[in-house]
Specification:
280 residues, alpha/beta, Rossmann fold, five-stranded parallel sheet, 5 strands, globular, disordered N terminus
Length: 280
């Protein structure tokens, strides 16, 4: 993409930030559950929402468990299970979950059933993360290997599509049971694949190596990945484009931040199960 083409594309995205929601626009009392690929999201979404002037946004609570499946959040001791308590009170409008590779995850079913029982209008957003160790079968041994071996972009895309497909199947079944679209998917993994592809093509400002995106072989994200994934969640939760929002990100350049905002919005708004579409 030439500099002129990129500039034109960016302008087009900036002037088309409105969205179409399926049904009534909900209030934004958000409760977060997840693992280490997701639990940096609450603070960053709050930061972006404040910068964007989303006054209705409110943190309803959070519950993080390292390396967890959603069922582990459901099975957490009831006396200390803040997620279930919040849903039982009906004090949540948006509830986030971040499944591991093993899908279906019965915890998603349980939380959706409980949440809808106490707040029939609420939404659930399930984060499709990026595949740990890069691939479903062929895993990287360490972070340095990401630079030593050429990135297999096609396999990366295929593996993420396979995992996302499993999450989609479960979400569609839950929506059919609910009689409406209540469960949505945050395509964070797809956005990370797009960023990795741009790095491989030398088109990501200030990033020249794949290892600059991660801290370890598992794939815990460095600032570019963390910021990108948080923008994806912001878009799905609020229905707003992050493009052009003045969020101060000292860990990355302004040029890279603009690119991450654009990748996040293009990925989310072009994916049907995010519940968000760009409106002309």
């Amino acid at each position: 993409m030439t500099r002129r083409t990129f500039a034109i594309a960016l302008v087009l995205v900036c002037v088309v930030p409105s969205v179409v929601w399926a049904g009534e626009t909900p209030r934004l009392r958000v409760f977060y559950t997840g693992h280490s690929f997701h639990m940096f999201v609450p603070g960053r979404v709050a930061l972006t929402a404040k910068a964007a002037g989303v006054k209705e946004y409110q943190l309803a609570g959070s519950q993080g468990i390292g390396g967890s499946r959603v069922i582990q959040h459901w099975d957490k001791d009831k006396g200390d299970n803040q997620a279930r308590k919040a849903l039982e009170k009906g004090d949540v409008d948006v509830f986030t979950m971040a499944p591991h590779l093993k899908i279906p995850d019965e915890g998603i079913d349980h939380f959706v059933e409980l949440g809808l029982k106490h707040n029939p209008k609420m939404r659930f957003v399930v984060q499709q993360s990026w595949v740990p160790f890069d691939y479903l079968e062929k895993r990287v041994k360490d972070n340095a290997e990401r630079d030593a071996v050429k990135l297999d972009v096609e396999k990366l895309r295929d593996d993420h599509a396979r995992w996302r497909g499993l999450i989609e199947t479960q979400a569609k079944a839950l929506n059919k049971k609910a009689g409406r679209d209540a469960v949505f998917i945050v395509p964070a993994g797809d956005a990370v694949v797009k960023l990795r592809t741009l790095v491989a093509e030398g088109k990501a400002p200030g990033i020249t190596k794949q290892s600059e995106l991660f801290t370890d072989a598992i794939g815990h994200g460095k600032p570019p990945v963390v910021i990108l994934v948080s923008y994806c969640n912001f878009a799905c939760i609020t229905g707003r484009s992050p493009v052009g929002i003045d969020v101060k990100e000292p860990a990355i350049s302004a040029e890279l931040n603009t690119l991450l905002q654009r990748i996040a919005w293009e990925t989310v708004s072009s994916y049907a199960m995010s519940g968000v579409t760009a409106k002309k």
